[in-house]
Amino acid sequence: MAEVSIYLDPLSQPCRSVYLFAKVNKIPFKHEALQLFKGEHFTEEFRKVNPLTKVPALKDEDFNLSESTAILLYLARKFNTPDHWYPSDLKKRARVDEYLAWQHTNTRPHCSKVFWGKAMAKLLLGEQLCSEKLDPILLQANTTMTDLEKNFLQDKNFLAGDEISIADLVAIVEIMQAVASGQDLFKERPKLAAWKQRVVAAVGEELFNDAHKEILAVLEVKEHLPPQLVEKFKVKLALYTN
Fold first, then answer.
1. Residue 231 or 179, more confident
2. What is the pLDDT of residues 149-177, one digit of tens each?
3. Domain residues of the chain, as ranges?
4. How far apart are CA 166 and CA 158, in angstroms?
5. What integer is the mean pLDDT of 178-206?
């Protein structure tokens, strides 16, 4: 079986979920590294893989695929990964699907807004957003964490049951994006913090740290971003925070 090519940048949270899943399941893949901060996702070469200019992206011979959740499910099926990742049991699978559907308008945007309001604002403007703009963003993120605990985690070990699933990977990388900005959403949430440790243990601490080392150092970035990219990022910052 020929290996697939996966285009990734660890600064992207969806990329990290795909990377973690592929690595922990020992899926053979060619790691095609892209650097978002250099605008490499806008090159003509990459547009042939994903015209939407987004990462992650997958190429399997003449088949191209975008969107991280679609990629995760494709890999799970193609490589017949252990059942707990995307259970064959109808109701257990539905719980994974339930979280994957919910997170698109909850965990993902609200943790992303924290990252953009704190980390990206500092990189682009020299300082994080003022409290008038940032406080509502932090309130949204904390409300989402409460919903995550009460409605998904509840008293289980993982979001969809007693074993780790794709839902947990998709969730943890989004929360870590906020953590990378300096906002510890696990603080004063012992249940959520204990869940994080179970996820780390399930994938392996070394692999988890490897996947997150670059995003956790994002505030130390010294290189200048290309001017055209800065303007694109400023537009995105305004959309996220206005």
1. 179
2. 999 999 999 999 999 999 999 999 999 99
3. 4-81, 90-240
4. 10
5. 97
Phi, psi of 162, rounded to the nearest 5 degrees = -85, -10
Radius of gyration of the chain, Cα coordinates, nearest whole angstrom: 18
Give the pLDDT mean for 89-93: 97
Strand order in the sheet with 57-60: 29-33, 4-8, 57-60, 63-66
Those residues with Cβ within 8 angstroms of residue 177's Cβ, 6 or more apart along the chain or in another chain = 13, 111, 112, 114, 115, 215
Beta bridge partners of 7: 32, 57
Q: Which two tokens mark 220?
A: 């130390």
Opening angle at CA 156, ends 150 and 162, nearest 5: 145
- DSSP β-bridge partners for residue 33: 8
Nearest to 209 by CA among 176, 181, 184, 175: 176
Predicted confidence (pLDDT) per residue in 29-82, tens digit: 999 999 999 999 999 999 999 999 999 999 999 999 999 999 999 999 999 999
CA neighbor of 13 nearest in space, from 151, 81, 107: 107
Question: Which pLDDT band, with edges at 50, 70 and 90, does 236 fall under?
Answer: confident
Strand partners, 60: 63
Look at the pTM and tell me if it is higher than 0.90.
yes
Give me the pLDDT at residue 71, please: 98
Q: Indicate the CATH number for domain 4-81.
A: 3.40.30.10
d(CA 116, CA 8): 20
Q: Which two tokens stand for residue 112?
A: 């992303």
By 3-state DSSP, what share of the chain in percent is helix, strand and coil, each rounded to 5? 60, 10, 30
| CATH no. for 90-240 | 1.20.1050.10
